[in-house]
Amino acid sequence: MDAKYELLDAPPKHSKNSVAFVRLRQVAGALTFVLVLVGAFKLHGFQTLRSTWSSLVAACSAGTSSVGSNEYIPRDIHYNLTISQAWRNPDGDWWRPIYVGNSESPIPTINAREGDIIHLTVYNELYIPSSIHWISMHHHASETWHDGAAGVSTYPMLPRANWTAVINTTDQWGARWYSDHMTTAFFDGLYGLIWIRPSPERERPYHLISSYENDQRDMVEAEADAEHITIFNHQHRTYDNLLSQLQSDGYDPFCFQSVLINGKGRVHCKPDGVHDINGEPVDSYGCVKQPRDAVGYGECRPTYADYEIIETRNRRWMMVNLVSTNLHHPFRVSIDAHKMWIIANDAGFVQPREVDIVEVGQAQRVTVMIKLDQQPSDHTMRFYALSKRQSIQGYAILRYPHRRTGVQLGPMPQPPTTLSPMDPLALPLPDKTHSTSSLSPFCPLSPPHPATKTLHFTARGAPDPTNPYITNYTLNGSPWQLWRAFRTPLIHHPNTTFRDPNPIVKDIPLGSVVDIIVQNELDVPVPLYKHNDPTFLIGVGEGRFGWASVDEAVTAGEGGRFELERPVRGYLHTLPPRGWAVVRWRVEQAAMTMFHSLQAEHFVMGMLVPLFEGDDRWPEVPESVRGRPHVEFEMPKGMGIFD
Questions:
Q1: Where would I find the Plastocyanin-like domain in this sequence (predicted)?
Q2: Are strands 365-371 and 317-324 parallel, antiparallel or unpaired?
Q3: What pLDDT digit, counting tens, does each position of 520-561 carry?
Q4: All domains in the chain, ordered by first residue
C-alpha cells in the first residue's frame, strides 16, 4: 500500500501549517518560556525561579531514557486517501458490503514523526456524504475546521468531492485513529490509524521499567518498529439495516458475530462453559436475550478464517499500540506467558505499570511494552469483551521464530484456554493481576485551578415521543441528532441564536478553566470524550454529586473525593453507572469542539454537546472552509432522532 501514498521531502511555502512556520512558532514559544522564568525571578526571586523550573522540567528529566541527541527536523507529509465501498468477507462466513479506505479496512496506517505536518487529501467515492474525524487529536491555532465533526466544525464531503485535512503533530505523539463523524459508516469498516513516533527530545519512562541501558536502548528502538493492533466488533449486517430493524421491531444491535484484530478474525460461538451473564441466559452467539424478543440472526456457525500473526522478528522488546476501534464495550487483553508494561494512554506517557491483563475502553488507545524473552513458539493474544450483554472473544498470534513441525494442512487451530489469565467473561483468574486505573502522566502535571466556569451535564435516556423502540439520549437536556451533520456548521456563526431545543453551550471565554460535572442517571457506564483537548479526571464517585462546584465540595470538607495534584489525564474517561465524574481543562485557544459519549447507541441517538470555546475571541473562518460544496438543509419539524 506504500505506493498509494506520496511523501514530499521538500516542504511547501510558509503557510500557517508549514513546518517552517511551526518551527518559528516553537522558537517564539521557547522565548516566551524564558521570559516567564525571568519574570518569576524579578517578581519573587531565585527560589521561585528554581521552583518554577523544577515543576516544569526536573521532575521527569533525571535519569530517563531520552534520546535528545538525535535531532529530528519535521517535514510536511502528503497522503491521498480514497474512501469507497467493497464486498468483503473478513471472518470467513458472510460476504457483505463494507466501507474501505484505499481498498482496505482497516485503512493502511499513516506514519509520521512528532512535529510533522500531515496533509491528508480525502476523496469521497461513496454514495453518501462523509466527514473524517481525528480521535484524540489536537488542532493548533484554532483551526478546528480540520476536526471533521460535520455540522459543527465543517461541512461534510459530498459524493465525488474531496477535502484536505491538515494535522499538525507538534507536541503530540502516539497512535491516533480516525473515522467517519457524519453517519454510521464507522460501524461498517471505515476507520484507520495514524502513528506519530515521539520526538527524540521527549522524555521516556523506560528507566522505570529497567535499569539496564541495553533494555532502555531496545525500548527506544522499538518505537521505530511499533506494532499496531485494532480491535473491532464485526456484524454480518450493515449498521443502517440494523437501525431500520430497531425502528421497526425494537431489535437492539448489540450482538456481534466476530472480533476482528487488524481486520482478521473468525466466528467463535458461545464458549462451552458460558450459559448466562449475570443470570441472564445467552444464545449461541453468547448474547443475552433481546428485550423485545426481536430476532436479528439465526444459529451461530463457527468459521475458520485466519488469525492475525504478530512476528517478534528477533526483537528483545516490542512496543504495541492497542486501539479499540469499537464503541460498544471495553476489551481485556492478555498474551499467554507474557506480562505487559503500560507506558502510555491517548494523552502521552504515563507512570509505567506491569500487568497481566490490559483493559482497553471504547475508542481508547493503550500503549504497552513487552519483553520478548519466552521460548520460540506461538503465543496466544486474547481479546475478551467486558460486556454484560455478550460473551465474545477474539484472538491473534504472537510468533517467535521456530520450526513448526507436525502442522497439519487446514485452518489454524483455535487457541486453547489452559494458559489464559482470564475466563470467557474477561474476569481475571484469582492468581492474575489486573490494573489500569490511576495512570497519571509520567511528567508531573497538575490541573489548572481554580475553575472559573462550571458546567453541569446529566447523562439520561428518555422514550422517543413517536417511536416506542427509540430512546433519546442526552447530556445537556436535548439530543444532537445525526441529521444535524447536514446543517451549516456552527463554527461559521458563533453569534447566532440557535433554534431550540438544542444542547449547544456558548459563552466559554478564552482562558477559562472549565469543569464539567456529569451525573449519570443510566445503569451503564458512559465513555466520555472531548474533542481537541485532553482533560484531567479530577473526581469520580457513586451516587449524586451534591455541590454546585468542586470548590464548594472542597470547602465543605469533601476534598478527599478529588485528585487535584496528579490526576489521570486523557481524551476519554468513564462515567460510572448511577455515579458522577468531573473533568477539567483550560481553554487555551478559540475552538469549535464537542463533548459526547462514545457508546454506540448513545452516539447515534443524541448524547453529544457542541462547545463554543473561546467564543469571545473567535477566529476568522477561511473562505475555503465556508465555500465548500454542500447542500442547503432545512431542519425537520419533528426534531426526532431519525427524522
A1: 85-199, 229-400, 481-614
A2: antiparallel
A3: 999 999 999 999 999 999 999 999 999 999 999 999 999 999
A4: 231-399 (2.60.40.420), 453-626 (2.60.40.420)
